[in-house]
Design a protein that fits this description.
The chain is globular, with a radius of gyration of 15 Å. The strands form 2 sheets. It has a 6-stranded antiparallel sheet, with no helix packed on it. A 3-stranded antiparallel sheet has the order 7-2-9, with no helix packed on it. The chain has one domain (2-138). Helix content is 0%, strand content 50%. It contains no helices and 9 strands.
């Protein structure tokens, strides 16, 4: 969790690169926005969810949207831009929901390696997600 700096009344367009090895999850009540899912909530309680919550303007984004009943992990590497107000709280969290986790292997049983990621060391025997801010522009 981080609190965004700046002067009260400022607004920021934040661009972030999302990379990770995650199981996919279905969501409802929102919409696909680029690669992630904006708004809504998890549509079941059996898969891991990865969530970015912005307090102002209030919004939630899910990093790992995908199909149902997928029994392997997938590589995610994409860039998204979102808005955040000065003084807002940005929270990144994940929830295993069912206490199970697909290892960091693809549908063929091959370990997934994320090029350019050194933390955690690759290939990682599990799931992870990282959010790297690449730009923040006041508007």
């Amino acid at each position: 969790m981080v609190k965004v700096g700046g002067t009260p009344g400022e607004h920021w367009h934040v661009t972030a690169r999302i990379r990770g090895v995650m199981e996919v999850m279905t969501y409802a009540g929102g919409a696909i926005d680029g690669t992630w899912y904006a708004g809504g909530a998890p549509s079941d309680n059996n898969w891991n969810l990865y969530r970015l919550t912005i307090s102002s303007p209030a919004q939630v984004y899910f990093l790992n949207p995908g199909g149902t009943l997928v029994h392997y992990s997938e590589a995610f590497d994409y860039t998204q831009t979102f808005d955040v107000d000065a003084g807002a709280t940005v929270t990144f969290d994940l929830d295993g929901q069912d206490s199970f986790q697909w290892r960091g292997i693809d549908q063929n049983g091959v370990a997934i390696t994320m090029t350019g990621v050194t933390e955690p060391a690759q290939p990682f025997d599990g799931q992870f997600a990282r959010i790297d801010v690449t730009a923040a522009v006041a508007f």
